[in-house]
C-alpha cells in the first residue's frame, strides 16, 4: 500500500519535472538543436546576459512587480479595513465587484483593460494629450488584478481581530491614524504580508494581462518569452528557464530554512 | 461594534473599482453591441453562430483537461494526505515549484519533447515505432493544460482532505466501514469543496487559454482565447467581434461556475 | 529594523518610478522577426547617441492591429508593400524628408516609384524577396512545380503554411488560377474552401518557426522566403526551393515613419544609417534577402548572384505578383474569412 502510494507520488513528480529537466540539460548543449547533444557549452548563458531585450524586460517585470505589489498592499489594506467597517449590504456589493477580476478569465480582464486604455487614450488625444501605452498602463493593470487578492487575504485577519481594538485605542486617547497604525495594523500584518507576496508572484508571472496592455515599447519578461517562442529556436530560452528554476528553488529553500529556524526558536521559548 | 468611520478608507478603492473594474466591462459591452462602422445592433453576436465549433472545442478540451487533472490530482492529494508531515511538506514544495516558473516556459518545454523528431519520437524510433504525430494535435493541447494546471487541482484538494479529522475516519472504521466505504461515505463527500474549487481553477484558465493552443497546437487547434486574441492583436482585427466573443465567454464561465456551486453543498469557492 | 525596511522599500519604489521615466533621445523600431542584423542598432546608438528600442512582429496584420488600436507610437516601421499602401491610404504615415536621407540616391531606380507608394514619398525600400515552396528532397520525391503539392494527401502531416490571411488565402487563390489581388468575393470564398480542404493535411501553420521546422526535418514541405532559404540550405543541404509555376508573391519591405512618431528626426537618421553600404551588406549577410541598394549589390560575393533566385535578371518584381492594398470591403472580408478558416476544424 505504502509502496503504491509512494509510486504514485513519484510518478506525478516525474511528470512535473521531466520537461523542466530536459530544458535544463539542453541549455548546456553546444548545438542549437533541442534533440541532439552536441557537447557542453555555457555560451547560451553568455548570450542571455548580453540580450538587451531580455535584460530590459526583466527589469520591467521586477520593477512593475515591486511597485504594483507595494501600492496594491497599501490601497488593498485600506480598502479591506474600509469594507470591514461597512454595513453588510454595501460590503456585499463591494466584495462582489472586487471578485470580478479574480473570477474572470485573465484574457477577458486583459482585453477589457486594453479597450479601456484605448478609449482613455483617444479621449486624452482629443484634448491634446498624446500618451502611449507603457509602464504606467502596465502598472495600473497589474495593480487592478493584485488589489483584490490583497483584500481577500486581509479581510479574514480583520474578522479575527477583536471588534473593539480600534475603538479602544481611540478611547485611550490615540489619534485615529495612530490607532490604525499601532492597534489595527499589527493585528492584520500577516494578511498584508501574504497579500503582498501573492501580488508580487501574480505580477511577475502574468502574461495575459501584460500582453494586452503593454503596448510594445515596454515589455515584461513573459511577453518577451512569448515573442522568443515565436521565432527560431534559441537555447537562450533554455538558459533563461534554468536560471528562473534555480532562483525559485533557492528562494523556496531559503524560506523553508528560515521558517524551520523560526519554529524551532518558538518551540524553545 | 466596529467603527463605521473607517469605511471611508475604502473610498479610493471604490473609485478605482469604478474606473478599472466596472468601466472596462461597460466598454467591452458597448463594443460588443456596435459594428465596425458604428451602428448599434446584435450583428456581432449573430456572427458568433459560425464559431459554435470553437466554443464546443474549447469547452470540450477544457473539460478533458479538468477530468484528467482530477483523475491524477485527486489520488495524488489523497496519497499525500496519508504521508508524514515531512513528506507532505517536501511534496507540496515540489508541486508548487514549477508553478513559479513562467507557464510559457513550461509549455515551451513540451514543444521539443513532442516534436516530430523530438525526444519521444527519437526514443520510439529506436524500437522502430513512429514517428508519431504528437505535437500540433488536440492531445498535445490537453497535455499542455494538464501539465500547467495540475497543481491547481492538487493544492485545494489536498488542503481539504488534510483537514478531515483523523478521528472521523477512525470513527467510520470503528463502525465497521471498510476502506472503500470510508472513502466513499466520509472522505470523498467531505473533500468535495476542494474538488469543486480545483475544477474551477483548472477549467477556467483551460477554456480561455490561447498560448497553449498556439505553442502546442501549431495554429491548427483554435480555441476561444485564440479567437479573441486574433480580433484584438492578431491577424483579423475586429475589436467589436472580439468584445462580443469575450462577453459570451464570460457569461458561459459564470454559468458553468454557478451550476457547479449549486452542485456542491457549499456555495463558496476556495481560492488558494 | 521595520522602519529601516519601510524606508528602503520607499526609496526603492521612488528610484524605480524615476528610472522608468529617465533616458535620452530614443526611437522605437518595429520590424519583422529574424529580419535584421541587430548589432547595427548598437552601432547606430554609438554613433548618434539615439537609443534604439527594437521590437518585432510576425505579420503585417499584427503591425496594423497594433497601430490601429492606438496607444503605441513607433518611430520606424518596416511593413511590406501592400501594407505601406494601406497605411498611406489611412493617413497613418508621414512623408519622408529626402533632404535628411543622404543615402537615398543609392536605392536602385526600379524600386523608387512603385505602385504602393508612387514617387516613394513615404517609404524607403529595405529588402526585396520572393515566396516559394521549400521542401526536403529526401522526403518529397514527386516533382515540386505547383502549389498543388501543398494539397497532396501523400504528404499529410508534413506540410506547413503561412499563418496569416494574405499569404495563405493568396496561395490558395494562385493555386486556383486567380490573382492575389482579386476583390471578387466568389473567388475568395473558393480560396477559403480550398484552404479548409487542405487543413487536415497540415502539420501546422506558423511564421518564423517554419525555418526550424524545415531545417530540422520536422516537416517536409512548407512555404517560406527565398532569403531565408539561403541560410536554411547551409544547415540542411537536402532542402530545395521552387517558385511554383502558377506564380508566386514577390515583395518589397520598406522603412516608413508613422504619423504619430515621437522622434521623426531620429527615425530619419536611422533609415539613412541603414541605407549605408556597410549596413546594407551586414543585413544581406544576416538575412539573405535581396538588397535594393546599388552599392551593396555591386559589393556582393559572386555566390549571391549565382542562384538566380535572389537577384534574377531585371529585378525580382518581374518574377511574380506583388500584393496590392485592397479596398476596405475586401479587407474586412479577408478578416472574416480568416476567422472562419481558423474556426473550421
Describe this structure in words.
The complex is a heterotrimer of chains A (269), B (272) and C (345). Chain A is mainly α. Chain A has a domain at 50-231: MetI-like fold (Orthogonal Bundle), CATH 1.10.3720. Chain A is built from eleven helices and no strands. Chain A has helices at 2-26, 43-50, 52-84, 88-103, 106-126, 135-160, 165-171, 176-205, 208-213, 221-229, 236-268. The radius of gyration of chain A is 23 Å and the shape is globular. Chain B has helices at residues 11-32, 43-47, 52-81, 85-100, 103-114, 119-125, 138-163, 166-174, 179-208, 211-217, 224-232, 239-263. Chain B is globular, with a radius of gyration of 23 Å. Chain C is of the alpha/beta class and 345 residues long. Chain C is globular, with a radius of gyration of 22 Å. The N and C termini of chain C lie far apart (62 Å). Chains in contact: A-B, A-C, B-C. The interface between A and B is large, with 80 and 85 residues.
Secondary structure layout plus pairing:
The complex is a heterotrimer of chains A (269), B (272) and C (345).
Chain A: H1 2-26, H2 43-50, H3 52-84, H4 88-103, H5 106-126, H6 135-160, H7 165-171, H8 176-205, H9 208-213, H10 221-229, H11 236-268
Chain B: H1 11-32, H2 43-47, H3 52-81, H4 85-100, H5 103-114, H6 119-125, H7 138-163, H8 166-174, H9 179-208, H10 211-217, H11 224-232, H12 239-263
Helix pairs in contact in B: 1-12, 3-7, 3-9, 4-7, 5-7, 5-10, 7-9, 7-10, 8-9, 9-12, 11-12
Chain C: H1 2-21, E1 26-32, H2 39-48, E2 51-57, H3 60-68, E3 76-77, H4 81-89, E4 123-136, E5 159-162, H5 165-175, H6 185-198, E6 202-206, H7 210-215, E7 221-225, H8 226-235, E8 239-242, E9 250-256, H9 264-274, H10 277-287, H11 294-299, H12 302-306, H13 328-343
Parallel strand pairs in C: 1-2, 1-3, 5-6, 5-7
Antiparallel strand pairs in C: 4-7, 4-8, 4-9
Quick structural summary:
The complex is a heterotrimer of chains A (269), B (272) and C (345). Chain A is an all-alpha fold and 269 residues long. Chain A has helices at 2-26, 43-50, 52-84, 88-103, 106-126, 135-160, 165-171, 176-205, 208-213, 221-229, 236-268.
Amino acid at each position: 500500500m505504502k509502496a503504491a502510494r509512494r509510486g504514485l507520488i513519484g510518478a506525478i513528480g516525474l511528470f512535473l519535472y521531466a520537461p523542466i529537466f530536459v530544458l535544463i540539460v539542453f541549455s548546456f548543449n553546444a548545438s542549437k538543436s533541442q534533440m541532439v547533444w552536441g557537447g557542453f557549452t555555457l555560451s547560451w548563458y553568455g548570450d542571455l546576459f548580453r540580450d538587451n531585450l531580455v535584460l530590459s524586460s526583466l527589469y520591467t517585470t521586477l520593477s512593475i512587480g515591486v511597485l504594483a505589489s507595494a501600492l496594491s498592499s497599501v490601497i488593498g489594506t485600506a480598502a479591506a479595513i474600509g469594507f470591514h467597517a461597512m454595513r453588510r449590504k454595501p460590503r456585499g456589493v463591494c466584495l462582489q465587484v472586487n471578485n470580478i477580476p479574480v473570477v474572470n478569465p485573465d484574457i477577458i480582464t486583459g482585453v477589457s483593460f486594453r479597450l479601456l486604455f484605448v478609449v482613455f487614450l483617444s479621449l486624452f488625444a482629443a484634448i491634446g494629450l498624446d500618451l502611449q501605452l507603457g509602464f504606467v498602463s502596465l502598472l495600473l493593470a497589474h495593480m487592478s488584478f493584485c488589489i483584490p487578492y490583497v483584500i481577500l487575504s486581509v479581510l479574514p485577519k480583520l474578522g479575527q481581530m477583536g471588534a473593539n481594538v480600534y475603538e479602544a485605542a481611540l478611547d485611550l486617547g490615540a489619534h485615529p491614524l495612530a490607532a490604525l497604525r499601532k492597534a489595527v495594523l499589527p493585528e492584520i500584518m500577516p494578511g498584508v504580508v501574504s497579500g503582498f507576496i501573492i501580488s508580487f508572484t501574480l505580477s511577475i508571472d502574468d502574461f495575459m494581462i501584460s500582453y494586452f496592455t503593454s503596448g510594445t515599447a515596454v515589455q515584461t519578461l513573459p511577453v518577451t518569452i512569448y515573442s522568443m517562442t515565436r521565432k527560431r529556436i534559441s537555447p537562450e530560452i533554455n538558459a533563461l528557464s534554468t536560471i528562473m528554476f534555480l532562483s525559485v528553488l533557492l528562494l523556496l529553500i531559503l524560506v523553508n530554512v528560515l521558517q524551520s529556524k523560526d519554529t524551532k526558536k518558538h518551540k524553545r521559548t | 461594534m466596529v467603527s463605521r468611520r473607517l469605511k471611508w478608507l475604502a473610498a479610493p478603492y471604490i473609485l478605482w473599482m469604478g474606473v478599472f473594474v466596472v468601466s472596462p466591462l461597460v466598454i467591452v459591452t458597448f463594443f460588443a453591441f456596435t459594428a465596425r462602422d458604428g451602428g448599434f445592433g446584435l450583428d456581432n453576436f449573430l456572427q458568433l453562430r459560425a464559431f459554435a465549433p470553437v466554443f464546443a472545442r474549447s469547452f470540450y478540451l477544457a473539460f478533458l483537461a479538468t477530468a484528467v487533472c482530477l483523475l491524477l490530482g485527486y489520488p495524488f492529494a489523497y496519497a499525500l494526505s496519508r504521508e508524514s508531515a515531512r513528506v507532505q511538506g517536501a511534496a507540496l514544495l515540489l508541486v508548487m515549484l514549477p508553478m513559479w516558473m513562467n507557464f510559457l516556459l513550461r509549455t515551451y518545454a513540451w514543444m521539443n519533447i513532442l516534436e516530430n523528431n523530438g525526444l519521444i519520437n527519437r526514443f520510439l524510433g529506436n524500437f522502430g515505432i513512429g514517428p508519431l504525430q504528437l505535437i500540433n494535435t488536440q492531445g498535445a493541447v490537453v497535455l499542455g493544460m494538464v501539465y500547467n494546471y495540475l497543481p491547481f487541482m492538487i493544492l485545494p484538494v489536498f488542503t481539504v482532505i488534510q483537514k478531515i479529522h483523523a478521528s472521523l475516519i477512525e470513527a467510520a472504521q470503528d463502525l465497521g466501514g471498510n476502506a472503500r466505504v470510508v472513502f466513499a461515505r466520509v472522505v470523498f463527500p467531505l473533500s468535495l469543496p476542494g474538488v469543486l474549487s480545483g475544477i474551477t481553477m483548472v477549467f477556467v484558465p483551460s477554456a480561455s487559454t490561447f498560448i497553449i493552443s498556439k505553442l502546442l497546437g501549431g495554429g491548427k487547434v483554435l480555441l476561444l482565447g485564440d479567437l479573441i486574441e486574433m480580433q484584438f492583436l492578431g491577424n483579423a482585427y475586429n475589436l467589436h467581434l472580439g468584445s462580443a466573443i469575450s462577453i459570451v465567454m464570460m457569461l458561459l464561465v459564470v454559468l458553468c461556475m454557478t451550476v457547479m456551486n449549486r452542485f456542491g453543498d457549499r456555495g463558496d469557492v476556495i481560492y488558494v | 529594523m521595520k522602519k529601516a525596511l519601510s524606508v528602503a522599500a520607499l526609496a526603492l519604489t521612488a528610484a524605480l518610478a524615476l528610472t522608468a521615466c529617465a533616458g535620452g533621445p530614443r526611437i522605437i523600431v518595429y520590424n519583422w522577426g529574424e529580419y535584421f542584423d541587430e548589432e547595427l542598432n548598437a552601432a547606430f546608438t554609438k554613433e548618434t547617441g539615439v537609443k534604439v528600442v527594437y521590437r518585432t512582429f510576425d505579420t503585417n496584420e499584427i503591425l496594423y492591429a497594433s497601430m490601429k488600436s492606438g496607444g503605441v507610437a513607433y518611430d520606424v516601421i518596416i511593413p511590406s508593400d501592400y501594407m505601406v499602401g494601406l497605411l498611406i491610404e489611412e493617413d497613418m504615415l508621414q512623408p519622408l524628408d529626402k533632404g535628411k536621407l543622404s543615402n537615398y540616391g543609392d536605392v536602385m531606380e526600379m524600386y523608387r516609384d512603385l505602385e504602393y507608394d508612387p514617387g516613394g514619398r513615404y517609404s524607403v525600400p529595405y529588402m526585396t524577396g520572393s515566396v516559394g515552396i521549400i521542401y526536403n528532397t529526401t522526403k518529397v520525391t514527386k516533382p515540386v512545380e505547383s502549389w498543388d503539392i501543398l494539397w497532396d494527401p501523400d504528404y499529410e502531416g508534413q506540410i506547413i503554411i503561412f499563418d496569416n490571411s494574405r499569404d495563405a488565402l493568396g496561395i490558395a487563390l494562385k493555386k486556383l488560377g486567380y490573382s492575389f489581388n482579386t476583390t471578387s468575393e466568389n473567388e475568395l470564398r473558393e480560396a477559403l474552401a480550398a484552404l479548409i480542404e487542405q487543413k487536415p493535411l497540415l502539420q501546422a501553420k506558423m511564421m518564423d518557426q517554419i525555418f526550424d521546422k524545415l531545417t530540422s526535418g520536422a516537416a517536409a514541405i512548407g512555404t517560406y522566403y527565398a532569403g531565408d532559404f539561403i541560410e536554411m540550405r547551409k544547415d540542411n543541404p537536402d532542402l530545395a526551393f521552387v517558385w511554383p509555376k502558377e506564380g508566386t508573391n514577390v515583395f518589397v519591405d520598406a522603412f516608413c515613419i508613422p504619423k504619430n512618431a515621437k522622434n521623426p528626426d531620429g527615425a530619419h537618421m536611422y533609415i539613412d544609417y541603414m541605407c549605408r553600404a556597410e549596413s546594407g551588406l551586414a543585413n544581406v549577410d544576416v538575412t539573405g534577402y535581396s538588397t535594393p541598394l546599388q552599392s551593396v549589390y555591386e559589393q556582393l560575393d559572386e555566390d549571391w548572384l549565382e542562384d538566380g533566385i535572389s537577384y534574377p535578371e531585371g529585378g525580382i518584381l518581374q518574377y511574380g505578383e506583388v500584393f496590392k492594398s485592397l479596398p476596405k470591403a475586401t479587407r474586412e472580408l479577408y478578416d472574416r474569412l480568416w476567422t472562419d478558416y481558423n474556426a473550421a476544424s
